[in-house]
Design a protein that fits this description.
With about 250 residues, this protein is an alpha/beta fold. Helix content is about 40%, strand content about 25%. The N and C termini lie far apart (about 50 Å).
């Protein structure tokens, strides 16, 4: 019995992602300065900060869209700092980018199939497409519709569903509420909470700090490329500095 309890504790405490002293430069501009953060398996962790603080750059560095100048990114015990983007996807990290970026001239179904490009088992891919249609019923209704004709909220749902088609263990979500009506934003955040319940670990970048902190376990505050504050989401949402700067 003690052994089982110890094993359970280890699983809960398993650090899935660790970013160590990460520096990222864009030309002569240092976008990230000695970033340190970690995410445990099953957590929702949020990055909050103003425009230009380095939130999107952090996600892009983890998914290897940009290469760090220095520092390390450790995922499930592997150093992925110099891996290629497609290798990172195969290891279990999916990136849902800011601005949705669906393939406008392809159907909903084709966009989902693209999300499974690293996979070869067609039967499993079909099962997962059905799972996405259950998670996002609107997409099921529009499966043969061109993605560019969807509403903004539907495109965001498609972007998330497409990312899930790679069966990620870690989902990087960049500004999922951007430009969406309040009712759709609430729907998107309910979906994020449902994803956490299925065991997906999530790193969430979101300008709506209040909403992000309501569903997150922990948070990091980024200012000018530097982490200035970190803690439990419940503590950050009540922190006077966070309230003044980000919660209105």
């Amino acid at each position: 019995m003690n052994t089982n309890e110890h094993q359970t504790e280890n699983i809960e405490d398993f650090v899935m992602l660790e970013v160590q002293n990460l520096d990222v430069n864009y030309g002569g501009i240092q976008a990230l300065k000695k970033i340190n953060l970690n995410i445990k398996k099953g957590e929702v962790v949020t990055l909050i900060g103003a425009n230009g603080a380095g939130k999107t750059t952090t996600l892009r560095a983890i998914s290897k869209i940009v290469n760090p100048y220095s520092g390390q990114i450790i995922y499930s015990g592997r150093n992925i700092t110099r891996r290629q983007p497609h290798e990172v996807v195969k290891l279990g990290i999916a990136h849902c980018p800011e601005g949705r970026r669906v393939l406008a001239k392809q159907t909903v179904l084709d966009n989902l199939l693209l999300g499974a490009y690293i996979r070869s088992n067609q039967a499993e891919i079909k099962v997962d497409i059905q799972k996405q249609f259950e998670l996002f019923p609107r997409l099921a209704q529009r499966r043969n519709q061109l993605a560019g004709t969807l509403s903004g909220g539907e495109q965001q749902m498609l972007a998330i569903a497409r990312a899930l088609m790679s069966r990620p263990q870690l989902l990087l979500l960049d500004e999922p509420s951007l430009g969406l009506a309040p009712a759709i934003v609430r729907e998107i955040f309910t979906i994020i909470e449902n994803l956490r319940a299925t065991g997906v670990t999530i790193l969430l970048v979101e300008q709506n700090a209040n909403l992000a902190l309501q569903i997150a376990d922990r948070g990091y505050v980024l200012e000018a490329g530097t982490i200035t504050l970190t803690g439990a989401a419940s503590d950050l949402i009540n922190d006077e500095r966070v309230k003044k700067a980000y919660l209105g």
